[in-house]
Amino acid sequence: REDIEMSRYTMCALMLGAAVALAVTGGADAACMSQKDNDDFFAGLAGAPIPLANSCCQMDVCGIPCPAAHAKPASGFGVGIGIMIAFFCAIGLGAFYFVGGKAENFFVAGRSLPLFVVTLTLASQSIDSNALLGNADLSYKYHFYDGAVLPIGLGLSLILNGIFLAHKVNEELVLTLPDIYGKKYGKVVEICTSICTCCSFLCLLAGNLVGMSVILAYIFDISEVGAVFLSGIICLAYTACGGLFSVAYTDVVQAAIGMIGCLSVAYWLINNAKEEAPPPSIGMPKAPAYTTVTSGTVANQDIGFYVYPDAATAAMYDAVDCEFTAGEKCYNTAKWCPTDDNCVADNGAYPIGDKRIFENQMTDPAALTPFPNAIFFNWATIFVLGFGNLAALDFQARCMAAKTPLQARIGCILGGLLTFFVGIPFAYLGAITRFYYGPDSKYAEFEADTCSTILDLPSCAAWKPDPQAFIKLLTTEPPAFLGGWGLLGIVAASMSTSDGAILALGTVFSHNVVRHFVEFDDKKLLMISRIATVPFAFIAMAIASAYKSDHPSGATGYLLIVAFDIVLAGCIVPLFAAFYWPFGKPSPSAALFAVVGGTLLRVILEFSLPKDGWLLLPYNKKEFYDYGTPVKDQGTFYPTWFDVPDDEKWTPSSCPQTKFEDYTGVDSLASPLFSLVLFLLVSGIETVKGSPLLDFGEWSVPYNKKINEDNAEAMTKAPSRA
User: Fold this and answer.
1) Smallest Cα–Cα separation from 461: which of 384, 355, 347, 344?
2) Spatial separation of the C-alpha atoms in residues 221 and 343, rounded to whole Å
């Protein structure tokens, strides 16, 4: 086993022989194994149908103790979080009086935000529950970079925005990002991009509602669906009242309190946790009264089942010579487990230990052997977030609200650096969480009817990560005050992004879609914007309810990537061309083809490319095979790293496995490239032709939409494109 360079997340079939010792009787309706022969075999050993009463499949099949129950959090966590949520809401509701019935105040806070507010409110939008809770969850379930790519991509997007777009967006003196598309390309492109950005922000809002709801559901012991709607209604209430004034100044408070709390608890755990990552497994004893099947020999109970992978690990745990495996060292039962109530053992999940970070994870597909490495998807995630976020309504709204173009630029760059500083440490917490709630912990849960050849596991191969593990970590391991502060920081991060998303949805729909079909003044614009936030918020709540924290697609982090995948496909190329097209004014027809074509290709590829949900390209390596379902194995179900006679060990051919095949990420990269090709092609055709390729009359003509604080009806057309 020296070739296994990483821990086993998914653990082992601990001991089939433990079933012999099960004295509990009583049946259950559900079978543990899909193959009847297998289920009957274990039921025969147990003396009753499995799972037994007061037992579980992983115990009855693999001898792995059932997951231990976790104590409920102390009531003080709920009191503290409830008080702070009420405080945030009071600040947001109080901002109603700053709006004064003026659209410019509601949409862009009167273009009055100073640099420190711009920086903190941009960082608050970036450091959301995806960059924190989603990051920690992914690095816990998989490994460091699977979570770290989220804050890396988000921080990169702010820096890119500061370099290329923030100052130009501020100089346009518009109210929303789609206004820029209207000003450069006309109403048709404006409406198309408005629809894309609204779809994008529904997913962003849903992801943050999931993050906030996971904490509220656990702390207050309510259903996650109920917590989703509670979270949405809380954010909706103060956002609809105060607009960007509410959002900006609650963001400042949330950033000050939340970021400090998140940093404090992250660095405390990094410096004070018992282990920075799970150590090499100590192993387990033999089952009581284990007797060999073929010879009927009663095994030596002072020698455990577990065979150590190397001499160093064996020496670490004072191993003894194995009984049946010549030349190898085994678990020292006499030292580590002399009695049932004085026993140090684990599930054998980490033969040579885990690591906090594998430095080659982003360069080598086999870096996480024996587990697959989603290297392509992780790079695609950085690209999607780094460039897709440039069309983020909330980011650009804060750039518009900055006092000067220079402050918008500096605020973006500082906000990006702050995102790195706060978000990346949370990826280090994944390995710490695995130590406390991973496959070698007493809380570990496995799918009994799974096997894996590369893991050498005939059953109980697939570990089931706990979707609440990180929250449980914060409520138990750090000091209570610090853990509560960290939870509050994640809630604050969720609220700061959720309110910005709600505001963006309402303003864009009313200002950039409805206003083209119904004329209304400034006060009606505010009223329609506030009303529009309600249905959008509830649609996002419905999406969040479907993508709860235990959803196989991954809830918070996954919805974040989907959100900006949508706008990356078609909106980014026209946005850059609006400011950097070198051949005069950019073409409205080219922009329309780019937006519609890129988006349509993204939709087509979503449903045409093979996707099995694992987000792994089909590399031709043994790590890239899914868990199998064990078939009849002639009654022998011991892994080869058990100290049992050779004829009682399993044969890997009894575990048929299929290769992972998921091209997610290919579509994300192909769509914006196709959008760019369309933009260049149509622009070239129009240059040769000497006239627009498409003409929708005044709807194809770039125009200025001027919203004055005292008169919102002034609207003048810009000169038509030559």
Assistant:
1) 347
2) 33
Q: Ramachandran region of residue 690, left (φ > 0), alpha (ψ -120 to 50) or beta?
A: left
Nearest Cα to 123, choosing from 252, 261, 267, 263? 252
Q: How many residues does the chain have?
A: 722
Give the integer Cα–Cα distance in Å for 25 and 143: 40
Q: Are 242 and 99 a contacting pair, CB within 8 Å?
A: yes
**Phi and psi angles of residue 193, each rounded to the nearest 5 degrees, phi first:** -70, -30
Distances (CA, A) of 537 to 199, 498, 513, 545: 12, 9, 17, 12
Lookup result for tokens 């008169």 = 711
Please tell me the distance from the alpha carbon of residue 67 to that of residue 65, in angstroms, as a whole number.
Answer: 6
Residues 6+ apart with CB under 8 A from 101: 522, 523, 526
For residue 251, the one-letter residue type is D
For residues 138 and 131, give the distance between their C-alpha atoms in angstroms, rounded to a whole number. 10
The CA distances from residue 606 to 68, 437, 542, 660, in Å, are 40, 34, 22, 17
Provide CB contacts within 8 A for 278, sequence distance 6+: 7, 349, 350, 353, 354, 431, 434, 435, 438, 440
Instruction: Identify how many contiguous H helices and E strands the chain contains and give both numbers.
Output: 25, 7
Distances (CA, A) of 359 to 362, 432, 711: 8, 17, 58
Q: What is the pLDDT of residue 495?
A: 83
Which residue do the tokens 């115990």 mark?
59
Torsion of CA 593, 596, 598, 599, to 10 degrees: 180
364-407 pLDDT per residue, tens: 999 999 999 999 999 999 999 999 999 999 899 889 989 999 99
Q: Report the C-alpha gap between 159 and 416 in whole angstroms.
A: 5
Q: Which residues contact 452 (CB under 8 A, 6 or more apart)?
A: 10, 461, 462, 625, 627, 628, 655, 657
What is the structure's pLDDT at 635? 41
Q: Three-state DSSP class for 307?
A: strand
pLDDT at position 138: 92
Is the separation of the CB atoms in 682 and 590 below 8 Å? yes
CA distances (Å), 462 to each of 285, 369, 458, 640, in order? 22, 15, 11, 18
* Dihedral sign computed on CA atoms, order 210, 213, 214, 215: positive
Question: Nearest-CA neighbor of 451 among 56, 19, 62, 7?
Answer: 62
Minimal CA–CA distance to 422: which of 130, 32, 69?
Answer: 130
Q: Cα–chain-centroid distance for residue 223?
A: 20
Nearest to 415, CA basis, from 567, 550, 255, 273 = 255
Low-confidence ranges of the chain (pLDDT < 70): 1-30, 92-110, 238, 240-250, 522, 548-556, 632-636, 706-722
**Per-residue model confidence (pLDDT) at position 35:** 85
Q: H helices within 309-453, ranges in order?
A: 311-316, 333-336, 375-388, 393-401, 405-437
Name beta bridge partners: 704. Answer: 716
Query: Is the previous residue joined to 370 through a cis bond, with omega within 30 degrees of 0?
Result: yes
Residue written as tokens 């005069």?
A: 584
d(CA 610, CA 598): 19
